[in-house]
Write a sequence for this structure.
């Protein structure tokens, strides 16, 4: 097992009715920026509940944070934080709102051009230079409620870029599974596949000695397969909803990646498809992942075979099991309502591979994946196979 450090200071408050604890979690006397997205919190009653619980606090509101939050939008919030001397931010939303708040937290006191946080992928570690924040999760998917990473889109350059650092963990996250009752099926489908692919990025590498990490990863995958179709059809089922929300958090709170190799090339390529075409993040992952496994088959064959045996109970030779495991993964994506070809989303895909390769070359991303052996030629092959 590889050496590792595990640090996760987020106070996770999980279950029905936990919003009642909100006022005790926010620092006394804090001036709060309440950040949210497109307004669904007004329809499902969450906004009213937040305001009721924070009646003794001064609140400034900032709405309109997009799915795949835009740098340009977030900088407007940063200006408000500075003008109003905000000392706590509350994110009410899914991963996009929480990611946006992480950027606000980092950018408000950043010495320099905040765009550098994204383009230079800076690690934000100094707690004295960030604005503390908490979250109320309304859409399980990204795990952003219990990690220190985020992704923000620069609209002007069509770049979707990741950043993070140990100073960007939420102080607390309230996770009430009943909030998913009003979510559209598409968002629930996306959440299941987002979490599933998060696990695969940390699991489908090569055989190693992190036996416990593998077993935890496999248990999350098995849970998502078990509850995924049901939670989409019946989000009011609390047993399904709670396992769904907790699986999404566990998929990316840092635990299963400690001491083991991880990949993340599927995400790097998928981010470009979202930035270029506005395709839902989870759906880009469903397009890219199976083709990455096919192109990198020899590198990943051993772990694909383990995945096939343990998750799908497949038998045969290692090669047969590994190939069938990819097919079974695609089948599950289809079961969850995912299209798995880029041409299902856009007809303007001819030059996509060259564009992504050129962009990666400009950034110096010459070798991705757990072995840095996903070269630009491989990236091109993966994208072209995804057409």
């Amino acid at each position: 097992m590889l050496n590792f450090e595990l640090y996760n200071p987020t106070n996770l408050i999980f279950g029905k009715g936990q919003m009642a604890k909100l006022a005790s979690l926010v620092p006394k006397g804090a001036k709060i920026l309440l950040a949210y997205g497109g307004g669904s919190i007004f329809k499902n009653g969450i906004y009213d509940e937040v305001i009721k619980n924070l009646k003794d606090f001064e609140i400034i509101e900032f709405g309109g944070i997009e799915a795949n939050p835009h740098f340009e939008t977030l900088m407007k919030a940063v200006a408000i934080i500075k003008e109003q001397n905000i000392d706590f931010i509350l994110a009410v939303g899914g991963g996009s709102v929480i990611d946006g708040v992480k950027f606000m937290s980092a950018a408000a006191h950043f010495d320099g051009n905040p765009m550098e946080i994204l383009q230079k992928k800076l690690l934000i570690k100094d707690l004295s230079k960030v604005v503390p924040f908490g979250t109320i999760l309304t859409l399980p998917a990204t795990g952003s409620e219990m990690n220190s990473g985020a992704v923000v889109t620069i609209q002007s350059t069509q770049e979707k870029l990741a950043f993070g650092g140990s100073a960007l963990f939420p102080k607390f996250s309230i996770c009430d599974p009943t909030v998913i009752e009003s979510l559209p099926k598409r968002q629930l489908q996306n959440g299941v596949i987002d979490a599933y692919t998060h696990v695969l990025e940390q699991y489908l590498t090569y055989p190693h000695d992190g036996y416990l990490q593998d077993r935890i990863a496999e248990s999350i995958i098995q849970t998502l397969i078990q509850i995924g179709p049901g939670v989409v059809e019946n989000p009011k089922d609390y047993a399904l909803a709670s396992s769904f929300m907790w699986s999404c958090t566990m998929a990316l709170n840092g635990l299963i990646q400690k001491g083991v190799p991880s990949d993340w090339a599927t995400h790097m390529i998928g981010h470009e498809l979202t930035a270029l075409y506005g395709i839902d993040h989870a759906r880009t992952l469903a397009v890219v992942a199976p083709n990455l496994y096919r192109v990198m088959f020899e590198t990943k064959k051993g772990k694909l075979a383990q995945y096939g045996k343990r998750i799908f109970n497949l038998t045969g030779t290692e090669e047969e099991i590994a190939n069938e495991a990819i097919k079974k993964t695609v089948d599950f994506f289809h079961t969850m309502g995912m299209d798995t070809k880029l041409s299902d989303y856009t007809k303007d895909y001819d030059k996509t591979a060259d564009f992504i390769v050129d962009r990666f070359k400009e950034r110096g991303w010459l070798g991705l994946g757990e072995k840095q052996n996903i070269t630009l030629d491989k990236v091109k092959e993966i994208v072209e196979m995804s057409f």
Remarks:
- The chain is about 50% helix and 10% strand.
- The longest helix spans residues 211-233.
- The chain has a mean pLDDT of 97.
